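step 4 of 6: structure.
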Amino acid sequence: MVSRVIPVEAFDLVIFGATGDLAQRKILPGLFRRFVAGQMPDDARIIGSARTRMEAGEFRDQVRAAIAAHDGPRIDHPQLDAFLQLLDYVPLDAGAPDGWADLRGRLRPDVVRAVYFSVAPSLFATLVQGMSEQGLADADTRIVVEKPFGHDLASARALNEMLSQHFSEAQIYRIDHYLGKETVQNLMAVRFANILLEPLWNAHYVDHVQITVAETVGVAGRGGYYDDAGAMRDMVQNHLMQLLCLIAMEPPVRFDPDAVRDEKLKVLRALAPVAPDDIVRGQYRGAGAIAGYAEDVDNPDSRTESFVALKVRLVNWRWQGTPFYLRTGKRLRARASEIAIVFRMPPHSIFDTPELPRANELVIRLQPDEGMDLKMMIKEPGPGGMRLVPVALDMSFAEALGEDGVDLPDAYERLIMDVIRGNQTLFMRGDEVEAAWAWTDPVVDAWAAGTARPEPYDPGSAGPDAATQLMQRDGRRWRDMRN
Ligand code: NAP
C-alpha cells in the first residue's frame, strides 16, 4: 500500500504552556509520533515556552520523560534523540516584557509559523497583546486556541472580538479534539462518499439518534475549573454539539473548511430551545472509598452537574420528528463514546418468527476501538426454519486499514498537522462557537436561577434513573453503556 503520510512543509511551532499537562501529555508526544511517522520535516522547530526558567536541554529532558510516561514503548525509539533536537525553549511570563525579544529572535522568516495557546484562557489576551507588540501577530501566523472557548455567549463573543483585532478568521484554529478523531471524519466519508445511507438519513427512516460520551473518572484534580463549568458547558456545548452537527448537517458543496462549517452552523441555528422536561442533571455521590462530587470539588453545596442527559430537537426539514438524545457524565459505568443512528422498524414483518425484527442501528464508536457497526437482521444459520438474529457488520478501521506498525494518528497530532497544512476544516469557526453558546446559555441560566439540585447517581452506574425515564417515556431506551 502507498504510504498515506503526506509530509508537511518546514514550520516553527511555538507552544505557550509547554510545561503544562496538555502539552506534556498530548501535544509533545503527539508531535513525536508524527516525527516517527515521517510527517515532520527535519528542519521543523518546536519552541516551548512557559514561566519556568530552564535551558533548552532541561526542556528536552522533560519532554523525553513525558514521552516515556505517555508513550511508553517508544522511549527507546532510535528517532527520539533526533526529535528532541528539534526542540527549543524560551522562558517567558505572558504579562512581563522579558523573553519576547528572545522568542522573536528564534523564529525564522520563511517557514510556516504557528502558535499554540496551551494555557489558561485568562492568559489568551495577554499573550496576544505580547505577540502584537513584538510584531509576532502578523498576517501569516496561525494561532491554536484550546477549549474552553468562553464560558457563555458574552465571553465567547468578547474572546472572538479580541482575537479578531489581531488575526483574521483564517488564522484562528479553535481546537475541539473530538473533530480530530478518525471515526468522526469517517462519519463524513461514510455519509458523503457513498449513496447507500444518505437516502435513509432523515426523519422518514431514522427513529432517533443517541450520542453518549461516558467517563469513568471523577473530577478530582480539575475540581476548580469543573465546578464552574459542569457537564453542559464542559462537554455538551462543544464536543457533543460538534458530533451532532456532523450527523445532522446537509451535504456540504465541497469538503472545504467554510463549506463544511457553513452546514454545521445551519444545524446549530436549527436547534430548538430545550424544554425543562427534556433535560436531566445528575451529580455522582460517594460510595465506599470513592469520593462524591461535592468532596472532589471541595464544595458541599455545589449544584453543578457531573452528568447531563437531554432530548434535542432540530427544527428543519430533514429532522422534524427525529429526536437526538445526548448524555455525558463522569464516574459512569464505562469509558465509552459513541453515536447510534437508530433506524425505524420495517413497516411490516413478513416473518412468522418468535423473534421480532429489531431496528437497524449504525453505531459509530469513538472510543474505545474506533470503528463502526451496522446492525442488521439476518437468518440464523443452520436448519430449524426461519429464525432471525441481529448481527453487526463490523468496520474496525485499525484492523481494516492499518498497516503493520503504523498507528492511526490520535486526534491532537492530526489536528496539529492540519494547522501546519493550513486546513481549518476540523476546527470550529467563531460563529459556530457563538451559536452553540446561544443555545446553551438559556439552559444553564435557568439552572442558576432555580433552586433545584442535580439528581444524585451512584458511581459506576449509567447516571440517574431520570435519564433512563427520559427515553422510556418516549418508548425508547438507551443503548447499554459498556467499554
Ligand atoms: P496546566 O497544566 O495548568 O498548564 C498551564 C501552562 O501555562 C503551564 O505550562 C504553565 O507553566 C503556563 N503558564 C501559567 N501561567 C503563565 C504565564 N503567566 N505566562 C506564561 N505561561 C504560563 O494546564 P493544561 O491542563 O495544560 O491546560 C492548558 C489549556 O488547555 C487550558 O486552556 C485548558 O483548558 C486546555 N485543555 C486542557 C486539557 C487537558 O487535558 N489538560 C484538555 C482540554 C483542554 P509555568 O507555570 O511554567 O508558567
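step 5 of 6: annotate
 - The first strand starts at residue 11 and ends at 16.
 - The chain has 14 helices and 15 strands.
step 6 of 6: archive
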